[in-house]
Amino acid sequence: MTLPPWRPARRAERMNPSVIREILKVTERPGMLSMAGGLPSPLTFPVEAMREAAARVLRDHPQAALQYAASEGYAPLREWVATHLRGQGLEVGADQVLITTGSQQGLDLIAKVLVDAGAPVAVETPTYLGALQAFGPCEPTFASVAGDADGPLPEALEALRQEAPGCRLFYVLPNFQNPTGRLIPEARRVELVRAAQRAGIPLVEDNPYGDLWYDAPPPPSLSARWPEGSLYLGSFSKVLAPGLRLGYLVAPGALYPKLLQAKQAADLHTSSFDQRLVAEVLREGFLERHTPTIRARYRQQRDAMQAALLRSLPPGSQWQCPQGGMFFWLRLPAGCDAGELLEAAVAQGIAYVPGAAFYAHAADRRTLRLSFVTLTTQEIDDGVAVLGRVLREHLDALEEPTP
Ligand code: PMP
């Protein structure tokens, strides 16, 4: 076989297939109870509101909706984002909002603008896999910030001043983190921002799950405490629909022009039609009516999974019931490797994501992520029961005396 004369760039070596996508391929088998996905429930998509809004956009502004448009984004949508965030205590002007093709693109633009090869980039332990993928090709040196049940440790962040001088940013997910589901409480937020300020490390705050709270709304964002030192990412994927690929980036004035240039180079602008469609859907307080329905649905599923885990998991399993978002994060008893056990789990008809993929360094192989939003409560009961059985069988085999 003759190879064509391609010579991939060095950064291409840092582009890896997502472990999750590989697992999802296996789980598409009929009858599989998959707790592996990161997809929102399609039952939450506001199909009727979209259909009507699409018809109105195409009736009232067909040519503008189908024409090239400004890289910054559609002005009424930028206004909506700024107003929405001001309602949550973030002092934002519409001119600081950059509409992106999903918040995933925001991560890509941030990497291009802020990360040089070899430069330190701080992440949580564990962190969102998609951020590791977006930053990776810019060849940073990842610095993993140790954490506890309340999130990253301020002293670990501050220590980077010596341990990783010139750290370009700290990527942090305060609300219902993917993968752990953990919420950073207010006191820890205050300390973290102080630590970041003392260490001179800017924050990249990613908040796709903040509106999916089941017990109480989350405390104010980190960016609200340090607007000039923070970039903030938001998304319509979890509250409207992810197929729209619509998100936003809020940047301080000093950084906005560079991010805008990166956006221009990446895709000129996010789909004009989709932006107008969403701006039309969002008029007159739609989200205030819609998100409570998503929360009510997911809260039931969250409660079902918590009950099923309490019922089915063997002693020594550890987890915290998430107060929002889409995921449970488990730490299995000693002697269990979630990656090795996946094959047995899939053979018995369930799937999850082994936690190792979410670590920049030194993965904890006893961890795994379970999504609860795409299964019925009965399926959650059944799926978790199977997981319990797989774990017990494995632990029993460990205990059997070798002949
Ligand atoms: N950040 C986090 C933490 C996520 O979980 C996701 C989606 N799974 C994204 C960003 C990307 O979301 P989107 O591009 O759909 O806005």
Instruction: Bin the helical content.
Output: 40-55%
The run of helices and strands is HEHHHEHEHEEEHHEHEHEEHHHEHEEEH
Q: State the fourth-level CATH superfamily of the largest domain.
A: Type I PLP-dependent aspartate aminotransferase-like (Major domain)
Average the pLDDT over all residues and give the rounded result.
95
Q: What fold name stands as the CATH topology of the largest domain?
A: Aspartate Aminotransferase, domain 2
Number of domains: 2
Bound molecules: 4'-deoxy-4'-aminopyridoxal-5'-phosphate
Q: Tally the beta strands.
A: 14
What CATH architecture label of the largest domain applies? 3-Layer(aba) Sandwich
Low-confidence stretches: none
Rg? 22 Å
The quaternary structure here is single chain
Question: Features of this protein?
Answer:
single chain, alpha/beta, Aspartate Aminotransferase, domain 2, 2 domains, seven-stranded mixed sheet, three-stranded antiparallel sheet, 15 helices
Outline of the structure:
The chain has 15 helices and 14 strands. The chain has 403 residues and is of the alpha/beta class. The model has no long low-confidence stretch (mean pLDDT 95).
Give the topology, please.
Elements lengths: L18 H9 L5 E2 L12 H14 L1 H5 L8 H12 L10 E4 L2 H12 L5 E5 L4 H7 L5 E5 L1 E2 L2 E2 L1 H5 L1 H4 L6 E3 L13 H14 L3 E4 L15 H4 L4 E6 L11 E4 L5 H12 L4 H11 L3 H27 L14 E5 L6 H10 L2 E2 L1 E2 L12 E5 L5 H23 L4
Parallel strand pairs: 1-12, 3-4, 3-7, 7-8, 8-9
Antiparallel strand pairs: 2-10, 5-6, 9-10, 11-14, 13-14
Helix pairs in contact: 2-12, 5-6, 5-11, 13-15
The structure holds 4'-deoxy-4'-aminopyridoxal-5'-phosphate.
